[in-house]
Design a protein that fits this description.
By secondary structure, the chain is α/β, with parallel strands linked by helices. It has helices spanning 11-26, 50-66, 82-89, 104-110, 128-136, 165-168, 177-189, 216-230, 248-256, 273-278, 285-298, 317-330, 357-380; strands spanning 2-7, 30-31, 40-46, 73-79, 94-95, 147-151, 153-154, 173-174, 194-198, 235-239, 263-265, 303-310, 334-339, 386-394, 400-405, 410-414, 424-433, 436-441. The strands form five sheets. Strands 2-1-3-4-5 form a five-stranded parallel β-sheet, with helices on both faces. The protein is globular and about 60 Å long.
């Protein structure tokens, strides 16, 4: 029997998919990339963006048509709003939240599917928190041999008015630090080079267990000590943080440990205080500016990424110009810019979506053009310097490999040596473009691990 899994949305959903694969393969299913040859078709969905949900509806209608010609079972899990879940119950054979993944073997058996193996004894969770803890105990089936995502927290207590996450994943729950550190230590021993700590608000880690669990800086220090004692080279990232909890202690901890990557993702969302208030973002531009100044002071080599929403309900042309000004001021290396779309359940869904779609597109284009111009300026400063690069794979340009610096800047390297994939190399930057640079191998790469 074969399965095919469609993963949509953020890196947290990617991490969730790795555990879904573990369960399915433990049941005897073989993974296939071909939907046409699969006996079991699943989606790890994302209700946070309408485009992702539209794709789910498109897929399930296509899959249900296939059922006229062959035996096929479908399921959906992931970040799903209650309104979407009700609709999915009529379209998919199985609908379940990710924290009920340990019960999937029983769900399949109840549906009459005989599987050759079972890795889990399903026990109904006593609560949502028990469920997510059971989910975390499932060993991830990592999709790479050198890059891994480690969930440290689930849910969100911030209730931004544009966001559906509190309604799809619930309140914040921190994964026990001993589990997190055990997984990180195992990955380091196995030679993984890039490890990303995941959560909806990673830097509020431990605040739901005050006094009984590490804080986020404490967790970072423990990870840093793993790196210090390992004698191995690897980079540790985290996403996504919230500016409210981005304290100087977090930045000082990153500065103290070489394995903690000098790259920060700091969501801005809007550069106007009145819009931030309507978004229920618990910071103002001046506070955000102070964090950026701390980053530049404590981590001068760090790259800075962000998230921005254009066309939020009530956003005037002048308020958008404030966001554009902040883009120019903070000089981001990368920004993920999205046009606002109301999400059922989020508070702003009750408000008039009063910025025309064409104006949202214009604002998106203006910000994107500014981002690319800033990126080109920053990338030109890299030319002539040598950077450590983690090679990720073959580039779409023939005869080239592609990788990323510690700051996650894309580097294209002329080489056809596939043995370099998953290894660190030194690359001298020779040319800069928008959103990427080109370089040449400057020295022999790291030894291949035995």
């Amino acid at each position: 029997m074969k399965y095919c899994l469609l993963q949509l949305g953020c890196q947290m959903n990617l991490s969730d998919s790795e555990r879904v694969r573990t369960v399915l393969e433990g049941l005897g299913y073989e993974r296939t990339e071909s939907e046409e040859e699969a006996d079991l078709l699943g989606v790890v969905a994302c209700s946070v963006r309408q485009k992702a949900i539209d794709r789910v509806y498109s897929k399930i209608h296509e899959w249900n048509e296939w059922k006229a010609d062959r035996s096929l079972l479908t399921f959906v899990t992931g970040c799903v709003l209650p309104a979407d879940r009700i609709k999915f119950l009529k379209l998919f054979d199985l609908v379940f939240p990710v924290n009920e993944l340990p019960q999937l073997p029983d769900l399949l058996r109840q549906y009459g599917v005989a599987t050759p193996a079972s890795i889990l004894d399903a026990v109904p969770p006593e609560s949502a928190e028990d469920g997510i803890r059971g989910f975390w105990r499932i060993k991830a089936g990592y999709g790479s041999s050198f890059e891994a995502f480690v969930p440290i927290q689930n849910g969100c207590d911030k209730f931004c008015t544009f966001c559906a996450v509190p309604y799809t994943r619930g309140r914040e729950v921190s994964r026990p630090s001993e589990e997190v550190l055990r997984e990180v230590e195992s990955l380091v021993r196995r030679g993984f080079k890039s490890i990303t700590l995941l959560g909806q608000n990673v830097n509020s880690y431990g605040l739901d267990k005050r006094g009984a669990e590490m804080t986020f800086p404490g967790l970072l220090r423990a990870v840093g000590e793993i790196g210090r004692g390992s004698g191995r080279e690897f980079w540790v990232y985290f996403t996504s943080p919230h500016p409210r909890d981005m304290t100087p202690e977090v930045l000082e901890t990153i500065a103290a440990y070489p394995c903690l990557a000098k790259q920060l993702h700091l969501p801005l969302q809007s550069g106007d205080d009145k819009v931030l208030i309507r978004m229920n973002r618990s910071y103002r531009v001046e506070q955000y500016r102070g964090i950026v100044e701390n980053i530049r002071s404590l981590l001068p080599s760090a790259t800075l990424f962000t998230d921005i929403i254009v066309g939020f309900t009530g956003e005037s042309a002048a308020q958008f110009e404030s966001t554009l000004a902040r883009m120019r001021e903070f000089r981001y290396n990368m920004a993920y810019i999205a046009m606002y779309s109301p999400r059922p359940g989020a508070a702003s869904a009750r408000w008039l979506d009063d910025v025309p779609h064409e104006e949202k597109k214009r604002r998106l284009h203006v910000l994107s053009e500014e981002l690319q111009a800033i990126s080109l300026e920053l990338n030109r400063e890299m030319v002539g310097r040598t950077y450590r690069v983690l090679v990720g794979g073959r580039d779409r340009l023939d005869g080239h490999l592609t990788g990323r610096t510690e700051g996650k800047i894309i580097v294209r390297i002329p080489s056809e040596d596939a043995s370099l994939v998953g290894r660190f190399v030194d690359a001298r930057i020779t040319d800069a473009a928008r959103m990427s640079v080109s370089g040449e191998l400057a020295a022999s790469p790291e030894p291949v691990p035995v």
